[in-house]
Amino acid sequence: xxxxxxxxxxxxxxxxxxxxxxxxxxxxxxxxxxxxxxxxxxxxxxxxxxxxxxxxxxxxxxxxxxxxxxxxxxxxxxxxxxxxxxxxxxxxxxxxxxxxxxxxxxxxxxxxxxxxxxxxxxxxxxxxxxxxxxxxxxxxxxxxxxxxxxxxxxxxxxxxxxxxxxxxxxxxxxxxxxxxxxxxxxxxxxxxxxxxxxxxxxxxxxxxxxxxxxxxxxxxxxxxxxxxxxxxxxxxxxxxxxxxxxxxxxxxxxxxxxxxxxxxxxxxxxxxxxxxxxxxxxxxxxxxxxxxxxxxxxxxxxxxxxxxxxxxxxxxxxxxxxxxxxx
Length: 327
Description:
It is a single chain. 47% of the residues lie in helices and 18% in strands. It is an alpha/beta fold. Strands 1, 2, 3, 4, 5, 6, 7, 8, 9 and 10 form a 10-stranded mixed beta sheet that branches. Helix 2 packs across helix 10 and helix 4 (100-108) crosses helix 12.
């Protein structure tokens, strides 16, 4: 059977068109990015999340050839920002500054407008920021064991400030209370700034705060650090013991990274991951992280996915045990 020239061309047209479409899609992915890529931050300007986004954004812009502007969308412990990114097009032009709160919120909130594990694709971990157990100098305890003894002798008389119900700092405190067998009254604030102000003034006596935001007050003598929640002592606070030295197994850190809407192409995720790892290895950025007491967390998207899964499971137990609820 002979095909006419017209039929032969038509019979070849669809395969050729399909190849052309695939080639165009591959070319578009290879050319990414061709316009600005926004980094959505679920908190107001000035916090650690915002600082990290603005620290790595310019490096990503220089390496990938397009601006990486930061968009602050605060509210509901970062859930508003997370939902916005989960619903964004998976085209590589919207990223989320992911943090510990995202893992906690999975259990803390009964209903969310998204499924974090399914709707946000892990791109790259950036760093971890340790948490310190801080007391106002008026508290008659200079060591962890003295604090625990004082709390047991005076149940309910110590007030423990946090940036809010279900925050990483709050749950670090609940984990400490659980493992030490003590009672402290939790006082939630709307943000770390107000909590720090009242801790400094003595309105509250205890707080678990990020080393990044509290180190200046510890060094200046306005606050006393009795322990750090990392697995070992920190170079920036070498004389402060790890809480795990007294309570084996205690561990609580803040961690941060980048996520993207689920369905973002593997090629785009890989390029972002490579650029993010290069950013935290850059001498200027790593030096700034060190000043904040932060530790770079290089790794693959799969490594970041495992960290998120492990942290989600671990904090779920603390949320359920403590009965923590959103503000």
